[in-house]
């Protein structure tokens, strides 16, 4: 996660001091990625070293203010324009776990999938609850609307991410069920939406005897 | 965010009577070699104020559960108790009355009557229950108004969007004293944003005291529920409980 660019984006709105940056960062992202003040000052020091921010005097309470420089502004705008790098997919523990569980002796992969599905759906329930609150706050026209909208976007990203995970789990489970069927039954054509509509992939009635494919 | 206060989720008091109670519910189709066990002994209670989502692959028994809960089908064994009345032992007359007065359905394809306006559609179950047309219309208008749908009262189904029709269907399901709503893939025909507005309405009706069962294969919609029940091969394999969402804010959110 780019704290650097996050701080630059806040500084573009005007000079700020360290703990103020931390508060604003968390308010926009709903503390989803909590920062500590130490991280903020370390990042500011690097930004200063790279000429992207400069100390900009003090406020009336004596806090040292930082201001964005022209090259900081250029860097920030490049960041907005440049898509996030997808060339190296981040390591995903769940993918690794399922990859290892396939054919592993003594592991019920369907139980592994269900345990994760439970946790994933529960996280979605939490996010959805918070989202309903954020929506209510925006609709009620409270003063912190800008931050609420930012927080809503972050929450919805979390919801879509967990949804993708839940769908992938459904899909993996029906894929494994299908692969465990005898070859003649497996030859049945997949329903047309099998890939986008994972739960539909398992034809009814489902096979009772589920075995993890081995070897 | 310090003011992201959630209304605390109050678990139903153990003494509160469930609106719907399923006990050891079994439904078997056919017999002998072609026997299919659609449900294999389900226990489920839904309390006032609760929205329960039922998820599972196709063939897992989701829709069977809903048709049994609503008295549209008879279980092979077990009990379905709605507002204290066991509908598996009720007379046909009692069952019909219960379906008119206590149970509302919401289907994927809305099922509004095309020749009737929104208000007339919502009034219909009351009229069928013997309430005078004037009273039925008044309670229909009140239900629509309460759900923010007052402006749709005089529109015909073909003059409404899918999302509007589905919201009217929810009003129809919960008009009068009815407080059990059984929703079978209510968002199935809707785009994702409209689906969300339908779920938000269902959620708010449950927050206002109704009890709901939502059958869906969409995790994003199931996530609006208080509990998510997972069915597989006719049995409940797992169930989530909603935690206090505020724990997210203290940095416990990560997976």
Automatic annotation (TrEMBL), chain A:
Residues 91-176 form the Transcription regulator PadR C-terminal domain. Residues 7-77 form the Transcription regulator PadR N-terminal domain. This is PadR family transcriptional regulator. Residues 193-215 have a biased composition (Low complexity). It comes from the Bacteria. Residues 181-215 are annotated as: Disordered.
From TrEMBL, chain B:
GO terms for molecular function: ATP binding. The keyword Cytoplasm does not apply. The keyword Transport applies. SMART domains: AAA. Residues 20-253 form the ABC transporter domain. Keywords: ATP-binding, Nucleotide-binding, Transport. It comes from the Bacteria. This is ABC transporter ATP-binding protein. It comes from Streptomyces flavotricini. The lineage of its organism: Bacteria, Bacillati, Actinomycetota, Actinomycetes, Kitasatosporales.
């Amino acid at each position: 996660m780019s704290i650097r660019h996050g701080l630059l984006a806040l500084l573009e709105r005007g000079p700020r001091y360290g703990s103020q940056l931390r508060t604003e960062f968390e308010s926009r992202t709903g503390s989803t990625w909590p920062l500590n003040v130490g991280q903020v000052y370390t990042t500011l020091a690097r930004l200063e070293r790279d000429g992207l921010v400069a100390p900009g005097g003090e406020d009336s309470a004596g806090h040292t203010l930082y201001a964005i420089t022209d090259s900081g502004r250029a860097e920030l705008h490049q960041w907005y324009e440049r898509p996030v790098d997808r060339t190296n997919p981040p390591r995903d523990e769940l993918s690794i776990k399922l990859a290892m569980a396939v054919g592993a002796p003594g592991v019920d992969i369907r139980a592994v999938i269900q345990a994760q599905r439970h946790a994933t759906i529960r996280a979605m329930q939490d996010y959805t609850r918070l989202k309903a609150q954020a929506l209510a706050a925006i609709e009620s026209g409270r003063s912190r609307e800008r931050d609420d909208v930012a927080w809503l976007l972050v929450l919805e990203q979390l919801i879509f991410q967990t949804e993708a995970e839940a769908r992938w789990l459904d899909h993996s489970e029906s894929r494994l069920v299908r692969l465990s069927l005898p070859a003649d039954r497996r030859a049945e054509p997949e329903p047309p939406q099998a890939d986008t509509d994972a739960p539909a992939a398992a034809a009814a009635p489902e096979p009772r005897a589920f075995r993890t494919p081995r070897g | 965010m310090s003011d992201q206060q959630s209304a605390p989720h109050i678990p139903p008091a153990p003494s509160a009577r469930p609106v719907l109670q399923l006990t050891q519910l079994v439904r078997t189709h056919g017999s002998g070699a072609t026997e299919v066990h659609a449900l294999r002994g389900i226990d489920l209670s839904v309390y006032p104020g609760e929205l329960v989502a039922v998820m599972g692959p196709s063939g897992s028994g989701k829709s069977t559960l809903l048709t049994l809960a609503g008295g549209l089908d008879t279980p092979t064994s077990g009990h379905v108790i709605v507002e204290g009345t066991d509908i598996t032992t009720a007379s046909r007359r009692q069952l019909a009355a219960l379906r008119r007065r206590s149970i509302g359905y919401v289907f994927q394809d809305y099922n509004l009557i095309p020749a009737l306006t929104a208000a007339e559609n919502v009034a219909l179950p009351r009229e069928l229950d013997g309430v005078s047309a004037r009273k039925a219309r008044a309670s229909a208008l009140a239900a629509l108004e309460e759900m923010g749908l007052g402006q749709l009262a005089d529109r015909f189904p073909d003059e409404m969007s899918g999302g509007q029709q589905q919201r009217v269907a929810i009003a129809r399901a919960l008009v009068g004293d009815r407080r059990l709503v059984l929703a079978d893939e209510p968002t199935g025909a809707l785009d994702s944003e409209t689906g969300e507005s339908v779920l938000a309405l269902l959620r708010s009706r449950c927050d206002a005291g109704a009890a709901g069962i939502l059958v869906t294969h969409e995790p994003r919609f199931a996530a609006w529920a208080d509990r998510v029940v997972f069915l597989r091969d006719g049995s409940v394999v797992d169930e989530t409980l909603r935690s206090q969402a505020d724990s997210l804010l203290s940095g416990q959110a990560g997976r």
